[in-house]
Amino acid sequence: MKFSLIVAVVVLALAQGSFAQDSSDLERFAQYFEEMKTKMTEMIGNQDLTNQADNFRRTQLEPLAAQVQEQLKSVATNVEEQVKPLTANIQAQLQPMLVDFKKQMEDILQKLTEQGRAIAN
Asked: Which SUPFAM superfamilies does the UniProt entry name for this protein (predicted)?
């Protein structure tokens, strides 16, 4: 009788363990479906986030870009106004040097031409 009682307890313990395993599987399935639900919610939320980002771009960034562009135009105009006199000054200083350089090159070319004719004769 003791032996059959021990066997019955062991069988009940094994059955309980089997049910516990099934319960664990159910918990894993429940967790899996919960994760899927969370991912689906995030995907739907991301679409909303995309719409918010697009709206932010239109309402905030585009006007800001227009303001920056206007400021850059203003800065470019100021820089151009400051650079024009500098370039005119540099050009005025370089012009005599360039004329002198051109004259020297013409003289060298003329000498080479005369030497070439002298050698050819």
From this structure: Apolipoprotein A-I
Residue 111 and residue 121: Cα distance in Å, rounded? 15
Q: Is residue 30 part of a domain?
A: yes
Q: What is the DSSP string of 31-95?
A: HHHHHHHHHHHHHHHHHHHHHHHHHHIIIIIHHHHHHHHHHHHHHHHHHHHHHHHHHHHHHHHHH
The model's pTM is 0.39
Q: Total structural domains in the chain? A: 1
How confident is the model over 64-100, as pLDDT tens digits? Answer: 888 888 888 888 888 889 889 988 899 999 999 999 9
What is the distance between the alpha carbons of residues 63 and 57, in angstroms, rounded to a whole number?
Answer: 9
**Alpha-carbon separation of residue 113 from 1, 55, 77, 106 (angstroms):** 135, 75, 50, 10
Task: Report the C-alpha gap between 62 and 43 in whole angstroms.
Answer: 27
Residue 37: domain span: 1-86
